[in-house]
């Protein structure tokens, strides 16, 4: 069985840059009322991400699971430019999430190179969305 | 955790104090009641000792107890009810709110600056009450009664009796099995006897004597005489006596109330019920202190004795001994697996260890953790667990172990108590923010969680406060769903707390941010917003309209239109298009209109545009010049188009939508009368306001509303904004998952659910960029499009077109009618029309008779003025003449500006006049947009508006008809019919290029006319027998005409603008070409044609001004002949035959050069290769071309075509030949005639050698301007044969030119002569 995932890119000022939900087939839109909770949990995990960053000596971008709230795990990935990728997930999938983060990072860098994109601003791109969706399907929901 | 008033070292001893029971006689109780206090309450302010207490421990060591406090309470034999405690705690928390205007601390953490109140007094009050209201239990003795006060009154009949009664009563309560409550510390409870004496009522001596008796019986140590006062008389005095009881009273007054709490208000989202995992556990009775591990000690068990000992030590602050006892007890309990007892011992051991003076050992936090876990998980006793957590958290806080404290606090949140969870979460949040590196985001999250629990616990104010504090962290960072949730909750809570303004602003935030919510959610938000807003507006029904956030208004897209709406077409009548809001802005066309207006204004003002001129703008938009106040005319409507956008996924319904304005009236004289000069709003007598009753904007739709004002008075109008009822449509959405507001169920929402409010229209002007200052700063100019000045009445023209065609053949002439109507109350004059395409239309010249006057009578009539002729006159021209001045084409005047020939030059109010208007299809095929600008003025001069305009754009589609090509060349014959002057031949090729299948059957050329100042058609030279001059599709016809010079005599008397018209008729009707409309169009085409090459000509003249003569040379090649081809086309349309008429013009300038009726497509010249050397002969260009020079002299040879000569008689044959030399120019020309054969070519020698010229072989002559000279030559032949006589070479140059060499003149055609032998 595959769980639910919520992915968010957080900018340097704790601003939301990009977010996407990955729900297993059939569960889609079933929990509309929870959507803000995802944001709350992810946002609260930022403190632990930052703390983890200070303690993290291995220079790994992938920080594994940094926080937990009820049934949700929060895994994090911090880019060199201090963009924070967070993933809320209700099942443990360390490798898949790591791969997903790495691929999205690749995608993000390409996107950020676009001179018309102001770094740290919300990403509003259908192409980017579609590609992240594909990566999610590939790594998380399969 | 937040900062507390008490330190933990004060808190814990105060929380565990020796408990003393009070047992009062009825009389004593009555006595205390006189002061509205119970006995326990009476003692409360005095329950802390200010003096030191000395105590000896088991080792007989003296200990000093400071600040000993005891708790006295009346004996209640029932254990406290769980519900009552709950209610009490709830009331304590809700009664304690942050003080108004409390200055919050500013905490800076990372990028966040947060306003946070550092203290949480409601939590401290809760904790205090919670600890005090702990029910006594069997596993610990801390709150068991250590002693009992027996209280009797001095006023009793038998006080000593009463004391022994009370003593027996106490004994009965403690030892009778009927009472399991209260708990007593030791079996033989210490008794203290108190005699209560009311000084204001009782007999003091009696009291003293009873007291003496008591002391004798119970010992001095155990007795006390308490004197109290029950007087109330001097309460009224101003002296404020501090009331030591007041702070204790509130809490106790509610103690005994038992109120069953209803379910807490429904959660905001049903989903959020599951914020915390786990379903609600069935509440256990708090009294159910069953040792779940099974073991129960009897009260006298030795293990319990140790515990009792420990508790006693603890109560008297002997923490060293207490710790060791607790520690021992703990071991015993654990050995026995008595978990509840063990947890209790662990808890107190940890606290004692912490409180030990000098801190010999670190605080054993793990004791606490075990205790909490045991209480909660094994014993299922949340109250004990909570006490444990509160103590431990406070201790950890004092050691700055915030993270551990937070973890403890969070761990105890559960479903069974929302209030406890809320308070603990809030404290946890404070722990996060107080950490060495503050965890702001954790803080915010836990505040949200706390707020949520507060709201579930019915603590609305606290909930609102938590959400507001958390909002600081989430605000403006793009976490829109979270933000929406917070705003929604803030809105809800503010509403229920009647903080309506806050509620409105919170809901407003949800609606105006780019929302990611679903449609259903947005619908719910909107309805809540409207509901709250309605409540706000009901509070102050007469107040100003509130500003509504929805829908969005794109202020800069606001357009303003001055004037009436265009009338729809009325039968044949078609109103001028003018300006309307339906027209899209087009910078090109608006520039064109502006130029047209400038042209006509320049003409009116004698060629100068006045400096005060500004182009009239009827429609103001973001592109127009809005820097000046626009002028509107009284009694003419003003339409404002407002661009709305609905950002929501639900439709918005605006009702009773109208404009909001204020008006400054002026009196009629235009002077500012101070008394009149006041602002008026909403006065329908001044300004009428149109109301749109319903205006629906669908989800995410952009829509414009057009709102009208009708000014009835002059003055200054300011359009402020729009006012409307905002509502939504019911039924398109479901209310799933949306809780209703308290006291308002969903059924209340209906279509009428709407609020009235306004939105302002504020338009920012363009950024200024003229001066240096403006360039270096960002300043914006004003935008005045919404501030029109209402001026006095002006005439208003309406123009209608009747029979106005939409399709024409190229060159077709059609007669239409124009109706001018003055619909105002002012006469108008000075009516003119200006168009870039004056060749398209005419109102007829001055000479034209205005026939027929009504459009219906003119139907089926020819557009031309015709005269029936007899067929004999065919082939000879009929001449007439006309001056171009008569047709409005004077010198120097603007041909584009055409005065409209109004019968009286003035159009009176209400009057209308119909004028004929001829149209000619443009020569190019395709769709033509032709702009007419009508200009008119008021008869009475207006200072503000000098003139008004009306626009019309006609769209004409033209299709191909005829192509006419003409050339003119010199005739070889020298004399005309009358034997004098020049003559030329004109060849006219006419081609039917019409391609439409169904349309035109054939063209008939009915007449060819010439028009020129110097030339006229003389006759037709019939080349073919096509007398009808019919042209079917794709047929081509050729005509040849002879052209002669006009009578010089006539020409001399005529003005230079006089044109001679000559008509050659192919039918039986003559079209008077010198009359309207034929001549009109001819002149118009001429003037528009002249415009183009004129620029070229002026260039030429400039170059040649030095060499004046060269122009003379050129002139002799010039003609000014214009050919007008008049035709009829037979068209079958809907099986009806129609006859269309038309005319084409060919303007001939140069002899020998082809001219066309239709504009030649100019092929774009290919890019010339770049030259890297300097052009050599720059002067050569200034010379006239060889071709031009070679046309100075026209030569012709006159001789017999055949000549018979008897060669056998005479071997030499002499033939007389006349060489005619005609000077084409008007200047003197030197001519050299050379008869000698060229000797360059041997072949030519051979041919020409066969004849010779006799006599003088070279002539040098001078010809005056246009002189004809004949030269008698003789040719000599020796053989029969055919000879070419055209060998004389003629050279010519202008006489006064020395620098120019003679140029060989063009030879005329081969002149063949046949020499026969006879």
From TrEMBL, chain A:
Pfam families the record matches: Sedlin_N
InterPro entries according to UniProt: Longin-like_dom_sf (IPR011012), Sedlin (IPR006722)
Single GO biological process annotation from the record: endoplasmic reticulum to Golgi vesicle-mediated transport
Single GO cellular component term: perinuclear region of cytoplasm
Keyword Disulfide bond: no
Gene3D superfamilies: 3.30.450.70
Family designation: Belongs to the TRAPP small subunits family. Sedlin subfamily.
PANTHER family for this protein: TRAFFICKING PROTEIN PARTICLE COMPLEX SUBUNIT 2
Protein name, UniProt field: Trafficking protein particle complex 2
Species, as recorded: Cavia porcellus
Automatic annotation (TrEMBL), chain B:
GO biological process: collagen biosynthetic process; Golgi organization
TPPC8 second Ig-like domain ranges (all copies): 810-950
Residue ranges of every copy of the TPPC8 first Ig-like domain listed in the record: 582-809
Coiled-coil zones: none
Pfam families xref list: Ig_TPPC8_1st, Ig_TPPC8_2nd, Ig_TPPC8_3rd, Ig_TPPC8_C, TRAPPC-Trs85
GO cellular-component term (any): TRAPPIII protein complex
Domain TPPC8 third Ig-like intervals: 953-1146
Chain ranges of the TPPC8 C-terminal Ig-like domain: 1192-1294
Taxonomy, superkingdom: Eukaryota
InterPro entries in the cross-refs: Ig_TPPC8_1st, Ig_TPPC8_2nd, Ig_TPPC8_3rd, Ig_TPPC8_C, TPR-like_helical_dom_sf, TRAPP_III_complex_Trs85
Name of this chain's protein: Trafficking protein particle complex subunit 8
Taxonomic source organism: Cavia porcellus (Guinea pig)
